[in-house]
Structure formats: C-alpha cells, structure tokens
Amino acid sequence: MKHKLINSTTMAAIALLSLAASALAFQSSGHSGGCCGQGESSPAKTQVAQQTKDVQKATVTVQDGKYSPATIQVKKGKKVILTFKGGKNMGCGSTIEFKSLKQTKTVKEGGTVTFTFTPQSAGEIKFACSMDMIRGKVVVN
Ligand SMILES: [Cu+2]
C-alpha cells in the first residue's frame, strides 16, 4: 500500500513537470495569441489619468496578452473613466475584471469598453483577465 502511494505521488510529480515543460515551450515559442503568455515579465508603464474639472480619464490598450499601461494613477474622490481599447493578440486579456468593483467587461478587437467608478480612498484597485494572470492596477492617491 505504502509502495503504491509513493508511486502515484511520483507519477503526479512527473506529470506536473512535463506540464511545466510544455508551458515553458509554449512561452518561448513566441506565440502570443494564447492566454497569459507575457504576464508581468515586461516593465509596467505608469500613466497619470488626464484631469478635467469633474472627471479623470485614462485609456489602456489590450494587446499581445498584456495591458498597456498596466498602472494608472488617479486621485480619490473624483470620477474615473477608464477606457480599454482592444488591440491584436489580446488572448484572454480581452476580458477585464475589476473584482473589488464587481465589474467585468469584454472588449472586441478594434472596440472599446469603459469602466466608471469613483474611488473614495487611497490605495490600489486591481484589474486582471478572468484568470487573474494578466494584471494591472489603478493607484489611487
Ligand atoms: Cu488569462
């Protein structure tokens, strides 16, 4: 019985290893159309939201499996209008989820979707693809 247990554990480990290996091969192949291939490997660009009297606006482009910029700076107590533009090779990044705001939207290539909210306190509002692998955040000051 004990012997059998060790065997199945070893088998599971081997299965995991080969899975990891194929995932690595997938990433290095440069095929960016799939999900979450890029992750947070590239340096996150920061954009300060454009301020007008009543609102603050920023635009994020979804392309090649990432959000650009991945960090947007806003001020608290003022309405934020955040637009996501659909580019090429979005992968699963086309579905954008703001968990803390309970808002999820999917953008089409060439289209846009807009998230509107008013942050009441300083901190971070995170967004991500539906699998929480491609990530970005709104930094509230
Ligand atoms: Cu994903």
Summarize it.
The protein has one helix spanning 2-28; strands spanning 46-48, 50-51, 55-63, 66-68, 71-74, 79-86, 95-98, 103-106, 112-117, 123-128, 135-140. The protein has 141 residues and is of the alpha/beta class.
Task: Describe the fold and architecture.
The chain has 141 residues and is an alpha/beta fold. The chain folds into two domains: 1-30; 46-140, Sandwich (Immunoglobulin-like), CATH 2.60.40.420. The protein contains one helix and eleven strands. Strands 2, 3, 4, 6 and 9 form a five-stranded mixed sheet that branches. The chain has a four-stranded mixed sheet with strand order 1-5-11-10, with no helix packed on it. The protein has a two-stranded antiparallel sheet with strand order 7-8. The longest helix has 27 residues, at 2-28. The protein binds copper (II) ion.
List the main descriptive attributes of the protein structure presented here.
1 helix, alpha/beta, single chain, five-stranded mixed beta sheet, Immunoglobulin-like, 141 residues, 11 strands, four-stranded mixed beta sheet, binds copper (II) ion, 2 domains
| Uncertain stretches of 5 or more adjacent residues | 13-33
Structural category: alpha/beta
What is the fold-level CATH name, i.e. the topology of the largest domain?
A: Immunoglobulin-like
Number of strands: 11
Q: What integer value in Å does the Rg equal?
A: 19 Å
Any guess at the CATH architecture of the largest domain? Sandwich
Largest sheet: 5 strands, mixed
The total number of structural domains is: 2
Shape: globular
Order of SSEs: HEEEEEEEEEEE
* Assigned CATH superfamily of the largest domain: Cupredoxins -  blue copper proteins
Helix percent reads 10-25%
* Ions, cofactors and other bound molecules: copper (II) ion
Q: What top-tier CATH class of the largest domain fits best?
A: Mainly Beta
- Strand residue percentage: 35-45%
Straight-line distance between termini: 59 Å
Task: Supply the number of helical segments.
Answer: 1
| Overall pLDDT level | 82
